[in-house]
């Protein structure tokens, strides 16, 4: 490890231990005050959504897009695959070619690294306001296509001379709901004074870790950027260990599989799993219909529908707007099984094929499953290990509901669950699964398109939100 990286590890460790700061003495009151503001996000009909200078359905294809040609579109997608219980399906999908900046400004105060987070209102957020990165904006936003105010602090991420880059990596978003979506996850450390606007707050990693133990406070974009940062430095919650294992060594020693075997397994899964995801007109989706309020599955089931909202938020760059949102029909479970093998922490991850991924497969959690579909899904079609996660009991190490991206999804909640494997858990797993050490997963997270967004959130929560309750048993 280079001296620079070692120092970053030490500084992140100190920040993770700091659960209080003079810059933010009462975080709860600060968040509560911002949530009391008169924000509005009201469901409207699809007819109300469409207007001459706003959103509309394209003639012929029915694609739902903004008249400016920017922001995002709702299109149709036809998917075929050679694996799984369903070999073909049609669905709407969000298409956003802009690469958003998810950027955090870092600065040292009183010898402790702090991060500038924003209390941001998004129309699909549970609780309306959640903590987001310093900048969470697409080019359509920060080039002011909406005609509103410029995005605050964006210059720190568009001008490389503004500070020292700690992390800068491209990562995917939800591969089931987006088509080829990716964001720039970036952390920039500054030395100069940065005045915090009233809706921004300097927080330590320790304070953020405490907030991650609460539902729907730290948003998805903040979690993915912080996950990339912690992976870059490989720092644990205590600043020294995860599961009792010292960090800072190369990722190979003690791992069940050397990294070359991990990569070979991943390549084999990509070669064996054939998947085609083709964009098609929104009007040509068997099993879907467009009615007054939504684009929805004809059978009333399905994982989601497309809704639309009217928004009023005076703290945003554009204070009023309308937009479509993808509305899940219930919460999702993202569960990760972990175990310590010969003193080295490992996670059971899945090579998950999703139609929106650029290379078909990224590493997903042990289980990702829409829980509203549990009763109507035959047991033989439920994912392996689902029932083990749901009946874990004393093995639970993290269990909190968190929101997904409120700018594109309406009240999309995921139950993030980490469970320590007991003695009865099988060591041999199906071909799509592999035990990979946490260090190896963090090494992969330093590069784009290896770890799906749910795994990135789980690794962050496991690292910084569970300081007093880590698995220690050795198998």
* Largest β-sheet summary: 7 strands, mixed
- Which parts are unreliable, with pLDDT below 50 for 5 consecutive residues or more? 235-249, 467-475
N-to-C span: 29 Å
Q: Strand-residue fraction?
A: 25-35%
Gyration radius (Cα, Å) is 22 Å
Protein name: NDP-hexose 2,3-dehydratase family protein
Domain dTDP-4-dehydro-6-deoxy-alpha-D-glucopyranose 2,3-dehydratase: 26-229, 260-462
InterPro entries: EvaA-like (IPR005212), EvaA-like_sf (IPR038153)
Q: Can you offer a commentary on this structure?
A:
The protein is of the alpha+beta class. It has a domain at 255-270 and 329-464: Nucleoside Triphosphate Pyrophosphohydrolase (Alpha-Beta Complex), CATH 3.90.79.40. It has 11 helices and 26 strands. The protein has helices spanning 3-17, 27-35, 46-49, 139-142, 155-158, 205-211, 220-233, 259-272, 386-390, 438-445, 453-464; strands at 40-43, 55-57, 64-66, 73-81, 88-95, 100-109, 112-121, 129-132, 135-137, 164-172, 182-189, 200-203, 241-242, 245-246, 275-280, 288-290, 295-297, 304-312, 320-328, 332-341, 344-353, 361-364, 367-370, 396-403, 413-420, 433-437. The strands form 6 sheets. Strands 6, 7, 8, 9, 10, 11 and 12 form a 7-stranded mixed sheet that branches. Strand 3 (64-66) and strand 4 (73-81) form a beta hairpin.
Provide a concise account of the structure shown:
The chain has 475 residues and is of the alpha+beta class. The protein has eleven helices and 26 strands. It has a domain of 152 residues: EvaA sugar 2,3-dehydratase subunit (Nucleoside Triphosphate Pyrophosphohydrolase), CATH 3.90.79.40.
